[in-house]
Known about the structure:
Layout: E1 4-7, H1 11-22, E2 27-29, E3 36-40, H2 44-54, E4 63-65, E5 76-77, H3 81-90, E6 95-101, H4 107-110, E7 115-119, H5 124-133, E8 137-138, H6 153-160, E9 166-169, E10 180-183, E11 190-193, H7 199-206, E12 233-237, H8 239-247, E13 256-260, E14 271-273, H9 278-293, E15 299-303, H10 312-322
Parallel strand pairs: 1-9, 2-9, 4-7, 6-10, 12-15, 13-14, 13-15
Antiparallel strand pairs: 2-3, 3-8, 4-8, 5-6, 6-7, 10-11
Amino acid sequence: xxxxxxKATDSDCINQxxxxxxxxxxxxxxxxxxxxxxxxxxxxxAIQEIFRVKKRPPNHPLILHLPDLxxxxxxxxxxPDITYALAKQFMPGSLSVxxxxxxxxxxxxxxxSNKICIRIPHHETTLKIIERLxxxxxxxSANIFGRISPTSAEHVMQDLFGEIDAVVDGGECRVGIESTxxxxxxxxxxxxxxxxxxxxxxxxxxxxxxxxPDSVNTSISGNxxxxxxxxxxxxxxxxxDIMTHQLMGASDSTTTIFLLFEDLHELxxxxxxxxxxxxxxxxxxxxxxxxxxxxxxxxIFIQIPPKSPEWLAINDRILKASHK
Length: 324
């Protein structure tokens, strides 16, 4: 199979993507978070094909992508009012909410769970495709399960060329990490996955605190302890430990590289400098990891960001990407 690369700016390409989805094919689509591997949410065999192509466990749920909330009751029941309050503030956007599933919804989407995760992506092209399709899509990250997420059409082509019918090139993702997931089936809104919408913004919108569990037992996309991983060994490191590592000979400058916030001129090490701004860091994170993963290093040391709430999502991704 030859995977087509379609331009998001070309109306004929958009129509071609819609036709492929209607025919039960898989299409890589841009969103503001990461590129998604899309299938028509009403097409069971297409949904099953997502799991095969990604090598994704069948009990690992998918996120439903809607164009708006007008048909939400077809997919979820017992919808709390807080859903619409959050939607008014963050949808379209990088927020997914977990709701009770309508019994008519296929278990293929939810991995057998009685709950369903939904969001409205903030990308003009993908919203246009969903609207023309006439039904929602499911769209996990368009890569091999557990590996580094794709933030460009090129990344999707590298990972899935020959396995899917097309990729729509909508440019690089402007957020760069996955959506925040909040559980609204619990008495208190619960953070299940930090992501593109930060905790401060959510709590400000709700005028209340969000519960952050020590561990997440609910089955959701991206909640495994090892995820988003390069093939190269990734090791988190504090700034004060970088000098010690070099002095002890723990980092061979020819086979290791350091992902840093600032240039440590006194150290003779390979380094890649990242911005201290969390939004710019997030935009670059997966793309930089992909470049370094292909560069032939034996180990990537990554400087641990601050432990402040705005860095919660990045720290989560680093922890899971480095877990062995």
